[in-house]
Design a protein that fits this description.
It is a single chain. This protein is α+β, with helices and mostly antiparallel strands and 68 residues long. It has one domain. The protein contains 1 helix and 2 strands. The protein has one helix at residues 3-34; strands at 43-52, 57-66. The protein has a two-stranded antiparallel ribbon. The N and C termini lie far apart (45 Å). The relative contact order is 0.14.
Length: 68
């Protein structure tokens, strides 16, 4: 295994996950506020699950997203 290749590949994957996740979360929240499902002052529980089937990784991260 080439550690440099692994490190570069993971960083690229995590950057994509971060940017895409932020965009999707913001879009979903704006839509929910616009159509009245959210008031815009809530704190929302959030969960991210990282799965890599071939190595048996299934890791859950819990957090909160504050809107105000």
């Amino acid at each position: 295994m080439n550690e440099d290749v692994l490190n570069t590949s993971m960083r690229k994957f995590l950057k994509t996950v971060g940017v895409t996740s932020q965009r999707e979360i913001e879009s979903a929240i704006r839509e929910a506020v616009a159509d009245g499902r959210l008031k815009g002052n809530e704190t929302l529980p959030a969960q991210m699950v990282l799965t890599i089937g071939k190595v048996g990784l299934n890791y859950k991260i819990d957090g909160m997203i504050e809107l105000e």
